[in-house]
Every structure is written in C-alpha cells, then in structure tokens.
C-alpha cells in the first residue's frame, strides 16, 4: 500500500499532532487531493498505532531535523537561524540531538573560497553561541565547494575543492556513515554526486556507497530499527512542485530533485523490514510517503524560501522526531514564527 500526504505548515497540519481537528482534515484532503491508497495520519507504518501500543512503548530519543538552513550574512539569515535554534531549545519537551539535513550554508557550489569561508565562519559562531545539542551532519549540494567552476573561479585542483571543504568543516572522514543511538541505527547518506563531465550534480549513491549501505544494513540486527538521513529525497511527492506545469510530452523530474537510483534503494530497504524512516530535505516542502513498510518524510526548510518568506505555502520550520523502543516513531513539522527581513 502507498500512503501519501502533503502537509501545509502554515495551518500546522502535521501527523500525529492535530489531525483529529476538522480544519486539519479538510486542509490535508484539499492538498493531497485524496491521492494514494491510504491517507495515513500517524505512527511509523501503514498500521495505526493503537492506544494500547502507545501506553506500552517507551520513547528512547527525541531529535530535531534542521535542514536547508542556508545561513549567510544577508537578509537576516543569521538571526533566523538563531531564532530556530532558540525555539527548539525552548520547547516544553526539547530534543536531545540535532540532525543537520544539509545545505546548512547558503551556497558554496558557485562561490569563491573567501565567500565560502565567510559562510562557514558565520555558521560556527552561531552554533558555538546558540546550540547546546550534539549535532550529526549530512552534506547538502550547496555545502560542496566549487563544482560550478565558472562561477567559483576554481579549477578543481584546489586541495579543499568539492566535498573536502565541507568534510573538514564538519570534521568528518567520509560524507556517509552510520552510528547507533538510543536503540536505533542511524544511516547518513551522501545524496549528491558530480555529473559525469562536471558542471552539475545528480541525486544518487555512487556504487561504492551503495555497496557499503548493503553491508551496513546486512550487519544491523533485524530487531534494530533504522533511520536513514539523506539530503535529497529518495522517494517524495513534493519535487513535482518545482515544475510550473506538466505536459504530455514532458513528464520527467529533474535528476537533481529526487534520487535517480530510487529503485535499487527501495528494493534494498524492502529486504530489510527494520528500515522504518527515511528523512530528507532539499525541496523546502513537507510531505510523507508510505511505501513497502518504509516511511519517507521530506521536511521543510529552516530558511523557507531561502530567507524570502514561505515556499509554496510551507513556513520556515524544522522537524521533531520521537523514536520509540518498539520501532515506531512520531514526526511533527514545527514552524518557529519567523518574519522575513529585507537587506539592510
């Protein structure tokens, strides 16, 4: 069964939060258009979580998913990021972990070394001063330096060119990895690959990374639930909103908006029933898809429309995810009430 839902953050229509309100139901049905075999309103799988199950399960971890921050010195982006961090820290039930879903700086793809370093320095100052949570980082396309050589003035021979710069900033050896926390297994993927011939990127796993992912899941006990984090969605509905219109002769989506290797990834996940949740960003919109026992959630952006307001009715916000000992989870998209600023 496939379940699909589009969430409109401005009305705070979120799964497992206020779906019982009639206004929420009407708005969700309007946005989703009744699409999908099942329109699911909560829990971690196609089967609803019963009150008995909720009473017996134990939450083991709450974490915040901040994606597409796009911090920069202009348009109040630094103040917006600080406001989002302060909002998350001030929740009545605050998160214990922050997961950066990628595109944490505005852009390095087409920027000089100096402009890129300015953005990284600003990011670190904000995190040092305003974040008390441990952070796990995922690379986004805009975190990668110089791939747009004509704009960045790079040659490709620079020591920190490409992903090396972001890996140094995040203090990581590789752009993909896994770790265990609170009884769950986390997999951080690298969605962004340089297109053959250069000049652009595509969304997929290279063969070495896919082979690693196969081995990592094989080595994870079937009883351990798995969270997968990728910057670009593996499966999602919202990339369709990047096209102004569809025609009979132009049905394709951009290879930069959704994983081109989604078939082999979803087949791999289907062989491992413990892959419960896949989180992504990149689209700056929120949706949720249930497919073959795995839930795919694309969270909206901390920056909204790149600090220019909301994006297709999706407010600036972040995800809050609760993980439970029985392999279930709950997700909320939380707007933090940011008002866009103009350049000074």
Give the topology.
Elements: E1 2-6, H1 22-32, H2 51-56, E2 59-66, H3 77-89, E3 97-100, H4 113-130, E4 135-137, H5 149-152, H6 163-170, E5 177-181, E6 184-188, E7 192-194, E8 201-203, H7 207-219, E9 226-229, H8 262-270, E10 275-280, E11 287-291, E12 294-298, E13 317-324, E14 329-335
Parallel strand pairs: 2-3, 3-4, 6-9, 9-10, 10-12
Antiparallel strand pairs: 1-11, 2-13, 5-6, 7-8, 11-12, 13-14
Helix pairs in contact: 3-4
Written account of the structure:
The chain is of the alpha/beta class. It has one domain: 4-Layer Sandwich (Purple Acid Phosphatase, chain A, domain 2). It is 24% helix and 21% strand. It is built from 8 helices and 14 strands. A 7-stranded mixed sheet has the order 1-11-12-10-9-6-5. It has a 5-stranded mixed sheet with strand order 4-3-2-13-14, with no helix packed on it. Strands 7-8 form a two-stranded antiparallel sheet. The relative contact order is 0.19.
Write down the CATH topology.
Purple Acid Phosphatase, chain A, domain 2
Can you say what the CATH homologous superfamily is? Metallo-dependent phosphatases
Distance between the termini: 51 Å
* Radius of gyration from CA coordinates: 19 Å
For the residues shown, what is the average pLDDT? 86
Helix content: 10-25%
Specify the structural class: alpha/beta
Number of domains: 1
What ranges have pLDDT less than 50 throughout 5 or more consecutive residues? 8-47
| Helical segment count | 8
β-strand number: 14
